[in-house]
Amino acid sequence: MMLGPGRDDAPGEAPVVIVEEGSVGIVATRSVALPGGLPLDGGARLRPITVAYETYGELNAAADNAILVEHALTASAHVAGRHRPDDRAPGWWDVMVGRGRAFDTAEHFVVCSNLLGSCYGTTGPSSIDRRTGRPYGLGFPRITVGDMVRVQHVLVQRLGIRRLRAVVGGSMGGMQAIEWALRYPEWVDSLILVATAARATPQSIAIHKVGIEAILGDPHFRGGDYYGEEPPAHGLAIARMLGHVTYLSDGWLWKKFGRRRAPADPAGLRTLFEIESYLEHQGRKFVERFDANSYLYLLRAIDLYDAAEGYGSLADSFRRMRCRKAVVASFSSDWLYPTYQSRELVDALRANAVDVASHEIQSEYGHDSFLLEHEKLTPLFRELLAS
Amino acid sequence: MMLGPGRDDAPGEAPVVIVEEGSVGIVATRSVALPGGLPLDGGARLRPITVAYETYGELNAAADNAILVEHALTASAHVAGRHRPDDRAPGWWDVMVGRGRAFDTAEHFVVCSNLLGSCYGTTGPSSIDRRTGRPYGLGFPRITVGDMVRVQHVLVQRLGIRRLRAVVGGSMGGMQAIEWALRYPEWVDSLILVATAARATPQSIAIHKVGIEAILGDPHFRGGDYYGEEPPAHGLAIARMLGHVTYLSDGWLWKKFGRRRAPADPAGLRTLFEIESYLEHQGRKFVERFDANSYLYLLRAIDLYDAAEGYGSLADSFRRMRCRKAVVASFSSDWLYPTYQSRELVDALRANAVDVASHEIQSEYGHDSFLLEHEKLTPLFRELLAS
């Protein structure tokens, strides 16, 4: 199953900011096949593996002008531009990639791949298991953030890249960026980490748990073997509604919805407030574009990620890094990846002599700020890339 | 259906603090019947109505030493003491009620009733609708916080009380206390409002929505007509798990659980961390003791409550009040009823010349602090009652 993002909803976590000038224009998602697959952290070998990716700009002769963008939980390789001229929205971080933008395609070769376990062209639970001729479902091996990065490491070599000028990620994308600098230290010149963390908080694990229980409890889930049948839409919608609440802030919900009542359902209990209609809409859109098994695997990859695992401290773990510079940005209203987690990253980077620009950006949008506060992020990114 | 709280889990939101000295001892829940019922804010007349309540201490000759305690979402009239000598835990706020305690039964007559719509002896959706001979289910009329208070107003008159020395409530209990002072201003001498608000935030409405969808989506829910059959246990457990996350704080979850792994389920996706086992346990215990329809009705009563409704501002609305004094306490780590909501109450009370003692208590327990921080709350309550 290959699910495409809906026309009116890019696969990011929030509405896409649209600016036309400097756009990369019409782009296409391509893919590379790794017929032999790769070994996974869990011990299994997954094969074959297909990796969907997009690129913007040109690789220079020295092959050292690449920027690798890591996407978050439910996004895709489609960062920038449009697939068709009539696409209503461009890619999920379009405003950051193009001529004159933060990641300037006049200078840089920007790459993003759909992460392992997702459902936008890279191998995941909805892919066909060639041993059975049917989708993997829960037979898909457990994957880690390290596995996602291992696949990307092969991809960037296939693309002829020799070194990454920067690895950039917001939210779960930041975990992948951190892991890049730990696994392939010689490859990573700088890190841009936005609204992210070295590990998920117990609170976010607890919130993921609620979504996971909603999916597993949906009678259509059938142990993950629902392909070709009705999918566990209600459970997945519940998980997404809850995720959405964690992407926003209380203050922003007051501004956008307040306590305004929904028009419909005057006698019923189901939908009394506008915020509820909004969440229902978000849930409905999401189940049209995302696979429930992928959602489970990716949530668990986040939960299990710990950049300090196997080391006495985060600073000890980061001793492996060889990157020179980093930007670490958090947002004042983000309670999913709170600022104290960015501070831990900053401290561990600085303990290893990385030159870090650290910013807590005042923003009301909650965790979604990383997709919306492009005007505040752009100068920070440009400064790092200019140095 | 009358559900009793389990022996090892009082119906409060958190573990009960147990202190033996000064205990009220063995107590019993009693009830009064209102055969003619009462009119509801929604226009219907609900009849009959039964009200379950407990009292501690003695009403004085002037009938003016009563303190009315309002319980929160899923608690009961059983505030203090034990029903049986071998009960493992006493009532949900036992530590506050007894000789020498904050609500000193040597001086005061303390009353608590199970709220309308609940399932601990007061009429609710699991009660028999005498028109059909079967439980109301979703045929139960929609109820408001005002309706809960109207029932209590009849109860206190039946008990011979002439004036309430204080109305006390934490969380949703605080909404009832506010409503008492608005509906029956001559009755209320003082208010004690803890971790509460004049209205639910859109964020808490959104979180309730997720729990409501989980209950409604459970295949055993059957439109609320599940009595005598298997109840919607998984949906209700999901709602409770999520509720539980909102009662705690990120900091406290780090301390209590951190990222410790659960022992079981090494290959599966379901239960990877200790915090998840804990939430599963909380969910299981809850479905044994609470009715899903009651949960829906009570969540919606919270969502719809707005102490300013029909008035230009909260201060305008509070002009009806006649209470002299109030304590308003919030907790630094409570993100469900954040301090800014208590400040709104303080401002509106002071605008109406109520003498308010306002406190933000430093606490790591999140919203549950109102049940756990008895040592910090007791002197505040005693000071108000002594004056």
Describe the SSE topology.
The structure is a homodimer of 387-residue chains.
Chain A: E1 30-34, E2 38-39, E3 45-46, E4 49-56, E5 66-70, E6 97-98, E7 103-104, E8 109-113, E9 128-129, E10 134-135, H1 145-158, E11 164-170, H2 172-183, E12 190-194, H3 202-217, H4 233-247, H5 250-256, H6 274-289, H7 292-304, H8 314-318, E13 325-331, H9 339-350, E14 355-361, H10 369-372, H11 374-386
Parallel strand pairs in A: 5-8, 5-11, 6-7, 11-12, 12-13, 13-14
Antiparallel strand pairs in A: 1-4, 2-3, 4-8, 9-10
Key phrases:
homodimer, 387 residues, alpha/beta, Rossmann fold, eight-stranded mixed sheet, two-stranded antiparallel ribbon, 14 strands, 33% helix, disordered N terminus
CATH architecture of the domain at 30-200 and 306-386 in chain A: 3-Layer(aba) Sandwich
In terms of quaternary structure, the protein is homodimer
Shape of chain A: globular
| Uncertain spans of chain A | 1-13
The helicity of chain A comes to 25-40%
Alpha-carbon Rg of chain A, integer:
20 Å
Number of strands of chain A: 14
Largest interface: A-B, 50 and 49 residues
Write a brief structural summary.
The structure is a homodimer of 387-residue chains. By secondary structure, chain A is of the alpha/beta class. Chain A has helices spanning 145-158, 172-183, 202-217, 233-247, 250-256, 274-289, 292-304, 314-318, 339-350, 369-372, 374-386, and strands at residues 30-34, 38-39, 45-46, 49-56, 66-70, 97-98, 103-104, 109-113, 128-129, 134-135, 164-170, 190-194, 325-331, 355-361.
